[in-house]
User: What shape does this take?
Amino acid sequence: MATIRDVSRESGLSTGTISKALSTPEKVSPKNLARVEAAIKKLNYKPNMLSQKFRKKTSNTIVVLVPDIANLFFAKVISGIETVAQKEGFSVLLGDTKDSIEREKEFVSMVETKLADGIINLRPYKDGDALLPKEGIISVNASSCENTPGATVRIDNVQASQKVVEYLISLGHKRIGVISGLADNPHTVDRLKGYKKALSNFDIEYDADLIVEGDFNYWSGLSAAETFTRMADIPTAVFCMNDQMAIAAMKGFTDKGLKVPDDMSVTGFDDMNVSRYCTPTLTTVAQPAEKIGEKSAELLFELLSGIKPKVTEHILPYEFVIRESTSAPK
Ligand code: RIB
Assistant: This one.
């Protein structure tokens, strides 16, 4: 394998000039730059990126903290981040935190020790969060909620949820259940706010018994559906706070002999690819997951380059998609 000394010999320039041409080409004359390039090409020289990174004091790496890598919503956000990072010449290091603050701390310390340059956090910010945003750590919160400090990218979860529930009301549903995420998850808080707003706009009384707590995973949707079927006064529709729980809930209702949507309308949130192919297809909120990823990465790179962004809170548009899982009550 060719070394920097071989390039120096081939071009007739010093090793110092070769490294300068690689790290700060603007400081090398066009004539010498051309000689370096020709030698590199001829010898197929691959510069040692690691030592260059140390010299430049940058890792060319960003960390993405993912609370649940198995949730395909996050996969799409990551795909958007990758697209932008690749263009910027950065690698993306996935930090699958499994919702553990201890694991998050380990990844934050990678930035503190300069093994990575910045962080995109896909876990929504919780009030009083001790971890991020943090002084000296460049970070963006993607898929955040209302009142998130620092640089954020999100949709309006309150408004989107309100829209879904108002649609169910417009179909004639009055007893509308909810399969929520964990009660202290900020997405749960925002989405429940939207549900309550919709009820109150139509003078429907809020009934806490109709809220069944899930955790955004499939199994919790299934178990929540069973809980609903055991109720004396079963709701006619259920607003699920994500697609995973909605798809599992549809199975739960069907297993118990209820037809979706005839006996039970079901709605989701995210619009995962599978939601278009399940039976029945799922009425849901389409979050612009890839765009959320792209925008977060663009924002992070702006911050990394030292530019103070004009806008630090980006609220992206979503779409409400009506499919087969909802109808008027029988
Ligand atoms: O954290 C889980 C959920 O929050 C995802 O399914 C998506 O809806 C995100 O916003």
Observations:
- The CA atoms of residues 21 and 30 lie 10 Å apart.
- Residues 71, 73, 143, 187, 216, 242, 269-270 surround alpha-D-ribofuranose (CB under 6 Å).
- The longest strand covers residues 61-66.
